[in-house]
């Protein structure tokens, strides 16, 4: 198997990981604040509540070469994927009627749903434009960005349809989060591997790793929704249930406690009742079992990466980060 | 100047215009009804209210070669642009709270705004995926699809911001419709010219023609909103004003009739008052003067097309169609 080593050049220069990560942040900032005046106010609102850039981090990690460097195209793809993620959050907040996101007031709450529809659309077009700026033209199309956007939408739709559905199965739930969260992580790892000129076999492994990390990320988020305080999660605790979104810990409780389910079917549960049922059935324990499964799957895919790939440790660190294993240690 | 003649081949076969147009319709139908089960119901809803495919027609017309044939890539671009247009309508109906579109109930009215947000996003991703299916890879990126989507969004936003704005200037109004309507017509003519392998100079002319036809199309629509019955327009008469959208005939009346404007500023006008003011100031006449300006501009650009371009007559016919000059003759 041949590994294509990208040459450093004016066309697509190589950068150190840390510099690349800073440049991603700059590119996003520049794209948001450099947009036409008419939309700038709304987009600036979003720069105040920037996240941890874990998807951008994923792109760069999957793109690392033996010298811990990444190509400029990985920076462009990383910035584009973060802006796409931002677009999805803006529309997501409309769908969930969310008032807060990362501790800040949402765009839809501040400026209204109609403005938020347009701003989300604009952000999506911005992400596409940023992606189209990548230097190696043949990579642009092969990243299959529109496919991932489509999968993201289907996940969102499936979740919306299953709002308040107490009969939601584990299978459907995994399908939902595979779209709404894991698709973008897969896209990130895929983009990293492609811009990093990995072999075809490695690209496939990276896609699998991205999918698993996305699933783990969401399942950990589901747990977080139950077991942290508002301050830690930077969003109201149990907002999922309040929004009618049924997540795995509760699915497990509904499945294992017949009397709880029949009680739930009669009407609105109190938060205390939900907490109690999840605790009694060990819904968080079950969710963590699922997390471990995806963790093992990811490790299996990581082992398929070539031995000379020095980024393996970074990928594992990212995996741990998604699973919040670092937080658990602290607790 | 050399004109590149595309070869007929398995990779990107040539089709007769009429066959190509049928194929565009088939591709759209296939894309909508062949989508995943979960979204099919909502998208099928849209197939019931298909429009006249004037944007697809534009792509194919701009793509015509000397033998009145177009390449398969023009079909793909045409279908993608129609689906993009559909996506914009779905979100547009959310923003305008529209209940009817082309005589059918809108998606947002039937299934709710939240579902419509996701369906519009999905349609946008579908359009991008359809476009990425074009055979000549280098054309895919050069069509600058994301730029046009961005311009469309800015036009929509600008319109939304200026809802009920009685001080709306002619300049801002033209800027709004240049985004919300003309951008997609320009994209259509651009895509046609690129996939039709026109010379660079011809591509520029086609872009100008597309822009002018888009402006004419919207300005004619503005007139139609005032001077036809509900049955003819297939939408409620004067829905623009009812939705707070101020169009050129009314802008002209507000600008020319100071007492009408100060009356309007005091509160909601009745439909009769709006009609009367537009009639008195000849708002429709003024709008038709603007239409004629864009018509002349388009004719100037058409004259720049090479003499051996046999599609000139078709482009002029399309221009007349946009200006509804055929309808005026009938009236």
SSE topology sketch:
Two copies of one chain form a homodimer.
Chain A: E1 14-16, H1 17-33, H2 37-47, H3 54-63, E2 69-71, H4 72-95, E3 100-101, E4 104-105, H5 107-111, H6 113-132, H7 137-142, H8 145-161, H9 170-195, H10 200-227, H11 230-233, H12 239-242, H13 248-256, H14 258-266, H15 271-280, H16 283-303, H17 312-322, H18 325-330
**Which residues of chain A form runs of ≥5 with pLDDT under 50?**
1-8
* Rough outline of chain A: globular
Oligomer class: homodimer
CATH level-two architecture of chain A: Orthogonal Bundle
How many discrete domains of chain A?
A: 1
Q: Provide the succession of SSEs of chain A.
A: EHHHEHEEHHHHHHHHHHHHHH
- Which class of secondary structure composition applies to the elements of chain A? mainly alpha
The CATH topology of chain A comes to Farnesyl Diphosphate Synthase
Helix content of chain A: over 70%
- The CATH superfamily of chain A bears the name Farnesyl Diphosphate Synthase
Major beta sheet, strand line-up of chain A: 1-2
Total number of helical segments of chain A? 18
Q: Under the CATH scheme, which class of chain A?
A: Mainly Alpha
What is the radius of gyration of chain A? 20 Å
Strand content bin of chain A: under 5%
Account of the 3D structure:
Two copies of one chain form a homodimer. The first copy, chain A, is mainly alpha-helical and about 325 residues long. Chain A has a single domain, classed as Farnesyl Diphosphate Synthase (Orthogonal Bundle). Helices cover about 70% and strands about 5% of the residues of chain A. Chain A has 18 helices and four strands. In chain A, the strands form two sheets. Chain A has a two-stranded antiparallel sheet. In chain A, strand 3 and strand 4 form a beta hairpin. At the A-B interface, helix 4, helix 6, helix 7 and helix 8 of A face helix 4, helix 6, helix 7 and helix 8 of B.
């Amino acid at each position: 198997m041949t590994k294509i080593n990208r040459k450093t050049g004016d066309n697509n220069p190589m950068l150190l990981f840390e510099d690349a990560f800073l440049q991603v942040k700059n590119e996003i900032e520049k794209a948001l604040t450099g947009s036409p005046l008419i939309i700038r106010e709304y987009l600036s609102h979003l720069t105040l509540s920037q996240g941890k850039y874990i998807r951008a981090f994923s792109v760069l990690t999957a793109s690392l070469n033996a010298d811990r460097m990444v190509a400029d195209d990985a920076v462009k793809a990383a910035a584009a994927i973060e802006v796409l993620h931002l677009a999805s959050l803006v529309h997501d907040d409309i769908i969930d009627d969310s008032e807060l996101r990362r501790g800040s007031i949402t765009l839809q709450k501040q400026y209204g749903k109609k403005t938020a529809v347009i701003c989300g659309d604009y952000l999506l077009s911005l992400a596409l434009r940023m992606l189209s700026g990548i230097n190696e033209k043949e990579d642009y199309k092969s990243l299959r960005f529109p496919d991932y956007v489509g999968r993201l939408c289907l996940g969102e739709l499936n979740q919306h349809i299953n709002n308040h559905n107490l009969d939601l199965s584990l299978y459907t739930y995994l399908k939902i989060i595979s779209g709404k969260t894991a698709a973008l992580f897969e896209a990130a790892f895929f983009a990293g591997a492609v811009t990093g000129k990995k072999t075809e076999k490695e690209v496939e492994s990276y896609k699998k790793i991205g999918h698993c990390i996305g699933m783990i990320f969401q399942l950990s988020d589901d747990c977080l929704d139950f077991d942290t305080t508002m301050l830690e999660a930077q969003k109201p605790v149990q907002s999922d249930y309040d929004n009618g979104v049924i997540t795995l810990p509760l699915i497990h409780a509904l499945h294992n406690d017949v009397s709880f389910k029949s009680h739930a079917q009669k009407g609105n549960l109190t938060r205390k009742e939900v907490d109690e049922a999840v605790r009694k059935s060990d819904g968080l324990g079950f969710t963590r079992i699922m997390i471990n499964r995806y963790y093992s799957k990811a490790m299996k895919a990581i082992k398929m990466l070539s031995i000379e790939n020095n980024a393996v440790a970074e990928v594992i660190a990212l995996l741990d980060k998604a699973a919040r294993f670092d937080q658990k240690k602290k607790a």
